[in-house]
Design goal:
With 129 residues, this protein is mainly beta. Strand 2 and strand 3 form a beta hairpin. The protein is globular, with a radius of gyration of 13 Å.
Amino acid sequence: MIHLKNFSSIIMLSILISLEAFAASNIDTTDKYAWSESSGWNNFNDTNGDVTVYNDHLEGYVWAENVGLIRLGTHTSGGRHTYANSSGTDYGINNDDSGKLSGYAWAENVGWIHFKNTSPAYKVRQLSP
């Protein structure tokens, strides 16, 4: 069984989003993958995932080839939201508006995944149209 305490094993996390509509998923369809030694390739624009990056948080599911679906948070209605990460009903990945990610995600097969906002900082960067 694979146990992930955090995503410190991620070699790269380059989630590229376009500046177009913040509807369904706004993850770039070409640059949608991140690599993790433990979970393998992580698809941030999977058909069943619909990951959406907002200025203050992430929503949706990531498909990880070795662990299955990873839920990025409990909030699902868009708009402004900051996860408290204080309980099983209020957890998720926060975005500090400069692209640095922090907080907790959940995967049924591995448990809690901690995005630390330390070195290496996991970041989202926007593409110019």
